[in-house]
Amino acid sequence: MSIFEYDQEKHMKQEREAAWEEGHREGLNSGIMLTKQVLQLSATGKSIEDIARECSISPEQVKRILE
User: SS3 breakdown of the chain: % helix, strand, coil, rounded to 5?
Assistant: First the structure.
């Protein structure tokens, strides 16, 4: 590639898109793991407050996951 073919704006856009996609994937994986943890703790009979404390989330978030 010659220096005349390089498009910095296009390159930066591609870098941003790749970073966004990676972050999105990581966020989805994190959410799936949290959901599994909440469901497992709920299955053991733990209270919503205990689950929230163990998962470092609010009781409202636990309720939304369990709905």
Answer: 80, 0, 20
CA distance 48 to 34: 14
**What is the tens place of the pLDDT at every residue in 35-65?**
999 999 999 999 999 999 999 989 999 999 9
- Joined tokens for residue 30: 């994190």
Contact 41, 54 (CB under 8 A): yes
Given the structure tokens 């870098």, which residue do they identify?
A: 15
Whole-angstrom distance, CA of residue 13 vs CA of residue 47: 46
Q: What does the block give as tokens for 45?
A: 């009979």
